[in-house]
């Protein structure tokens, strides 16, 4: 009967294999970007996962990826989220296909897929986030402001519960993607391989000479040699602050250490604000890359 089939539908309990199917679809969609930014939605999708999670406030337990509140205004219109409609629209196609997944799980799984498919480390992930309401939305101002210095960076990330080592590891995501003048106002990529997860961000920070760019836009640095790369003021701070510098140097010298620390910090970021009892598994899963499933 109709009642019975409706009951079956609501009782559908997705397994790890079902989430792997979603992961695989995300991997496909990320690559199917045509002329968009080096032919990949990977970086912008990763940024969506970060901005959905990075609103967490340890003191009040508010914010974070649980309720996927960036679906609603005004959070979708917060200045920091400019341009992320691109990533949300890409994700919406997948949501139509796998309607059983919550937006928070979808967006965070997409962050994991982006990192892994762009040759980054494996990132443990597990589902359990639920779709919330506009009333769950965090206030504006919880994400970092690229024009600021070390005290601001610490205020923002300590609020989430991260330490200096984790802050520096997370910022290595800027190996990927670029700044857009019509989004943040900043301009350009950080590395020569913006769709490959590497430790080049740290290497370039130390190996290149960085000078203030002379232009009409916001204060940013450019590499003296090629003038084709950029650093935000907050990126440059990682070479100036004594504690940050120690970790940035270590990641420039040891890509394995960076991969290990990024994976741990990013997995932690994606779970901030999600009540432990909501997770369907007691330990996070390692999702397979598309390449691994080919053999
Ligand atoms: Zn970013 N980030 N970010 N970031 N970010 C941008 C782009 C990207 C900061 C920031 O202001 C900016 C982390 C930390 C910090 C990514 C991932 C992660 C842009 C450019 C800015 C201005 C946006 C644009 O114009 O499109 C600041 C101040 C940070 C800390 C101090 C962390 C942590 C990240 C992930 C773990 C990624 C992947 C991008 C590239 C997006 C794209 O569209 O290419």
Summarize the topology.
Layout: H1 2-10, H2 16-31, H3 42-53, H4 85-97, H5 103-117, H6 150-160, H7 164-171, E1 178-179, E2 188-189, H8 200-207, E3 210-212, E4 221-223, E5 230-231, H9 233-240, H10 242-253, H11 255-271, H12 290-294
Antiparallel strand pairs: 1-2, 3-4, 4-5
The structure holds 20-OXO-protoporphyrin IX containing ZN(II) (ZEM).
Report on the architecture of this protein:
The chain is mainly alpha-helical and 295 residues long. The protein has 2 domains: 7-142 and 264-294, Peroxidase, domain 1 (Orthogonal Bundle), CATH 1.10.520; 150-258, Peroxidase, domain 2, CATH 1.10.420. The protein is 45% helix and 4% strand. It has helices at residues 2-10, 16-31, 42-53, 85-97, 103-117, 150-160, 164-171, 200-207, 233-240, 242-253, 255-271, 290-294; strands at 178-179, 188-189, 210-212, 221-223, 230-231. The protein has a 3-stranded antiparallel beta sheet with strand order 3-4-5. It is globular and about 60 Å long. The termini are far apart. 20-OXO-protoporphyrin IX containing ZN(II) binds next to helix 3, helix 7 and strand 1.
Order of helices and strands: HHHHHHHEEHEEEHHHH
Contiguous helical run count: 12
Mean pLDDT, rounded to whole units? 96
Q: Report the count of strand segments.
A: 5
**CATH C-level name of the largest domain:** Mainly Alpha
Shape: globular
The chain-level structural class is mainly alpha
Which quaternary structure do these chains form? Answer: single chain
Overall number of structural domains: 2
Which molecules are bound in this entry?
A: 20-OXO-protoporphyrin IX containing ZN(II)
- Identify the strand order in the major beta sheet: 3-4-5
* Largest sheet composition: 3 strands, antiparallel
Helix content: 40-55%
Distance between the termini: 43 Å
Instruction: List unreliable stretches of 5+ residues.
Output: none
* The CATH architecture of the largest domain: Orthogonal Bundle
* Percent of residues in beta strands: under 5%
* CATH fold name of the largest domain: Peroxidase, domain 1
Radius of gyration equals 19 Å
């Amino acid at each position: 009967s109709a009642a019975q089939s409706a009951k079956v539908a609501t009782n559908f309990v997705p397994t790890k294999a079902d989430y792997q199917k979603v992961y695989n679809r995300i991997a496909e969609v990320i690559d199917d970007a045509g002329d968009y930014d080096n032919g990949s939605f990977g970086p912008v999708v990763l940024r969506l996962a970060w901005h959905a999670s990075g609103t967490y406030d340890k003191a009040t337990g508010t914010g974070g990826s649980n309720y996927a509140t960036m679906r609603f205004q005004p959070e979708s219109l917060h200045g920091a989220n400019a341009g992320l409609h691109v990533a949300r629209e890409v994700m919406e196609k997948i949501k139509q296909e796998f309607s059983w997944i919550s937006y928070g799980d979808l967006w965070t799984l997409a962050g994991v897929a982006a990192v892994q498919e762009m040759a980054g480390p494996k990132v443990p992930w597990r589902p359990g986030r639920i779709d919330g309401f506009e009333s769950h939305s965090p206030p504006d101002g919880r994400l970092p402001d690229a024009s600021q210095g070390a005290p601001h960076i610490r205020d923002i990330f300590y609020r989430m519960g991260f330490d200096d080592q984790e802050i520096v590891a997370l910022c290595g995501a800027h190996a990927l993607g670029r700044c857009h003048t019509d989004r943040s106002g900043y301009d350009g990529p950080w590395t020569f391989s913006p769709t490959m997860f590497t430790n080049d961000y740290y290497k370039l920070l130390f190996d290149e000479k960085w000078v203030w760019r002379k232009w009409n836009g916001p204060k940013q640095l450019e590499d003296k040699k090629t003038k084709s790369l950029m650093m935000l003021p907050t990126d440059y701070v990682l070479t100036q602050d004594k504690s940050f510098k120690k970790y940035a140097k270590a990641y420039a010298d040891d890509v394995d250490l960076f991969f290990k620390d990024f994976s741990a910090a990013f997995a932690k970021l994606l779970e901030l604000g999600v009540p432990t009892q909501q997770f369907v598994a007691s330990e996070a899963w390692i999702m397979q890359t598309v390449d691994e499933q080919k053999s």
